[in-house]
Amino acid sequence: MSGRVTAVCVSGADLLPLPGRRPDRSGIDKAPVAGRVAVGELGLDGDVQVNKKHHGGEGQAVYAYAQADADWWEAELGRDLPPGRFGENLRTTGLDLRTAVLGEQWQVGTALLQVTAWRTPCANFARFWGVPDLVKRFAAHGATGAYLRVLQTGELGAGDEVQVVSRPDHGITVETAFRIVMTQKSRLPELAPVLRYVPTKDQPVLAAKIDKRLAALA
Question: Fewest beta carbons less than 10 Å away: which of 100, 103, 119, 211?
């Protein structure tokens, strides 16, 4: 399976101000950049994550969002949503990110990336778009995009192929995991096989939730 990167986006120095909040800025406002972009262990050259507790790190180094899902939101909201408006680093086409399997690996340019997690919508996202009920609507729709870990550093650019080079056989997709964590908590034990793929900082919390559910079933 393969797709393509249509735009590579970073936040640069133009951080979104968040008056009256801590932290008081956000790196969600990203814009496309030209040429080849270096990919380090913690993300793309020039990209910034301000709130390190909830964003960035080894398991959220890169964020991808599909053009098909952006098209759905454009029709839903009646507005243009060009690359970067989801806070994504990679706008992609040709791959259904809802059905991406946790742990699958992508070759993009000379970088090797691994799907780690779903995106959980937050209040800053709603403020950025000016849609007060966006968190609820985004969660209900379920097209969260995919967070990625950098397994091999390199460089990439718009127009590069996204080649799925390996895929685990556990069958847990990004959307399935998101639904379980958000609204189908009785199914949490199903996530045990994918625990090792999620961002390292999130593994203890998810493991505790799985253990709690298993204890309740014992």
Answer: 211
